[in-house]
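Tokens in:
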């Protein structure tokens, strides 16, 4: 499913729509330790995290994630939001805990592949 389809299918708040809306969203990925995320996150992931700082945007850029989903009501600080906009990174947000947000990502992707 494309990032644009994913955004429309989810209940996540759009913080920054980002670029490349035809990028595929393929799997959820949960991790809050940036060094591990940087080395293990698959390309095309919807990365669910509570890390709302500029380093998260750097990792998202380096790893080519489809989007970052901030869970637990976390927001981006001003520097991170500015960098997300300049880098074209899609940022979504939810009040859900990390696991529930990732499970919702999984369900959206699964349901789209069953159409």
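Residues out:
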């Amino acid at each position: 499913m494309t990032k644009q389809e994913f955004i429309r299918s989810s209940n996540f708040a759009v913080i920054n729509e980002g670029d490349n809306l035809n990028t595929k969203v393929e799997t959820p990925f949960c991790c809050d330790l940036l060094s591990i995320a940087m080395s293990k996150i698959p390309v095309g992931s919807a990365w669910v995290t509570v890390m709302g700082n500029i380093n998260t945007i750097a990792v998202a850029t380096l790893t080519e994630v489809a989007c970052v989903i901030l869970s637990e009501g976390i927001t981006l600080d001003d520097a991170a939001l500015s960098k997300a906009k300049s880098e074209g990174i899609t940022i979504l947000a939810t009040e859900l805990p990390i696991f529930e947000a990732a499970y919702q990502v999984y369900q959206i992707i699964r349901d789209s592949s069953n159409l």
